[in-house]
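Reviewer has doubts. Consider these tokens.
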Amino acid sequence: MDTLQGKAAVITGGASGMGRAMADRFGAAGARIMIADVEGPALDAAVAELNEAGVDAVGVRTDVSSERDMDELAEAALSRFGQVNVVCNNAGVGAGGLMHTLTTADWRWLLGVNLWGVIHGIRVFLPHLLEHGDGHVVNTGSVAGHTSYPNMGPYNASKHAVVTISETLHHELHQSGSTVGVSVLCPGLVNTNIIDSERNRPETLRSPIIPPDPTPEDEERIQMLLAIYEDAVKPPEVAELVYRAVLDKQFYIWTDYVYAPAIMQRHEDIQLGRNPSFRGQLVDEDQNAKMPPRAG
């Protein structure tokens, strides 16, 4: 795909954060946009702003964990555009906790969005993309799909699954000689609202365990996290990387190299058959550590 001019893109989780930035970037390149999001007011506001900027955009309220909602999203996209070219399975939520404290509701909520949202997106759109051939799938993974930091069990599991699903799809497309491309976006920390994901958690999947009031140490760590996220990579920077990856048919999309040493160390542990190396928490990595991009 050498241009997005006149093409149609569907972006889940498109009302805010990275998804919204993708909508802005693709729209600026001349693409027609359908954004799907579970937050109705934010969805309406995003569509209005895109339209005001001259982008042909429409929104569909969608719970990506719902098979029916995703079926209806695909029907709406094909009805509106006739042909869909780019599918960004981007919707995601974040949650954590020690493994022994997690409930079934915790797992169901996070895997429903982060994993089943990608599965449904591939299921409903990939046959159409394969039929016409001028298409690209972008699945939002994470550096958490290449690492296993503590207190992030469900999130890590979901993102490891997204990475291997994307790699599997890449091999299948290559094996069949398809012209459809696939990328997996593996961001580190990005300045989005993911740390406030609980705002979109359905009542039916609320954890029945009432957490204790935060201690002063907890409050201090929360403020530290907010400061780290405030200084993290900005969504428009990520959207630019995604845009270029779609045009270049690039598979892995990395937003920074802060976590490269952790990923390399994990691979070395696996290769040498040694126990996993403990590196602390995900946010404990040196957020200022940078590595030069690899050639090619």
